């Protein structure tokens, strides 16, 4: 009898919780969001293209390719979310430059369909965009600065923003930059982890000294998303770190915090790397709007890196 009552109230509570449909769930930012939201009162449906790469005890995991809209729609109809957070993307600019179709289908077409679905079903859509929609010539970029992408990745992200703005009434477009974090249970890397691993293994690396970013701690983004899911229609918002730094200086700071030998890091110019995708020189994202509207006060770079180092212990 007691067990039946307990199960009954659990079932009732589960149904009263707001449902969040999180795509790209195996990825870096989605994992931080999942960790942060699963401690709150949300029912989370985590969707990714590959098999589950994390402990999914606090959510329901489904495998789905967001470019297969028929399958995605079946899942959306099944779970009837209040909020969709789209973290699924081809996030590597060089890959986008050589596989245009994969990039366009994932970063644009799937988003276009998702935005139509969300509008029709009155769902709040939160979508991730990038600092790579800018050319990198401005000193600072606010939400109303003019986009001018240099790469196909940048174009696909900018077009995804535009289609959401055309289709949706309730949306948030989050622009972020050089995110660092840690995923213990899968192989996903990011710049900071790459530097740490290379220096730990005494592998010399070349790092660009003429590109500047505002590196962003993954859990800072996730905390802002926790505030955001209870709002509706904030439009475009920059969620980035507060310190502008060259990528080379970032690598040296990593070496200093992890107490590794920075002598293995060679500063190079962008032109010497011959990468497929052009990259903006400097993308200083202004975070005033997020401070005012979401109470977004991110960690300093030193704080974020130290937090990450502790997480990795
Ligand atoms: N990380 C950054 O520095 C950064 C900077 C600016 C903007 N952003 C944007 O932020 C968002 C999230 O980035 P992230 O760094 O978390 O990316 P990530 O670590 O590369 O993760 C992206 C995830 O998307 C999933 N995915 C790819 N194609 C898919 C498809 N067709 N269907 C379903 N899932 C698919 C992958 O799933 P599987 O692993 O399951 O295959 C992957 O886990 C992206 O929109 C990215 O453009 C990131």
Assign an overall shape. Answer: globular
Strand content: 15-25%
Tally of helical segments: 11
Quickly give the structural class: alpha/beta
Regions with little confidence, pLDDT below 50 for 5+ residues? none
The domain count comes to 1
Structural overview:
There is one protein chain. The protein is an alpha/beta fold. The chain has a single domain (2-181, 216-241, 283-299), classed as Rossmann fold. It has eleven helices and 13 strands. It has a seven-stranded parallel sheet with strand order 3-2-1-4-5-6-11, with helices on both faces. It is globular. Bound molecules: NADP nicotinamide-adenine-dinucleotide phosphate. Residues 23-24, 26-30, 48-50, 65-67, 87-91, 106, 128, 130, 176-179, 188 line the site of NADP nicotinamide-adenine-dinucleotide phosphate (NAP). NADP nicotinamide-adenine-dinucleotide phosphate is lined by residues 23-24, 26-30, 48-50, 65-67, 87-91, 106, 128, 130, 176-179, 188.
Helices and strands in order, then pairings?
Elements: H1 2-16, E1 18-23, H2 28-37, E2 42-48, E3 60-63, H3 69-79, E4 83-86, H4 93-98, H5 100-120, E5 124-130, H6 152-167, E6 171-176, E7 179-180, H7 191-200, E8 205-208, E9 212-213, E10 216-217, H8 218-228, E11 235-238, E12 245-246, H9 247-257, E13 265-268, H10 288-294, H11 301-311
Parallel strand pairs: 1-2, 1-4, 2-3, 4-5, 5-6, 6-11, 7-10, 8-13
Antiparallel strand pairs: 9-12
Helix pairs in contact: 2-8, 5-6, 7-9
The structure holds NADP nicotinamide-adenine-dinucleotide phosphate (NAP).
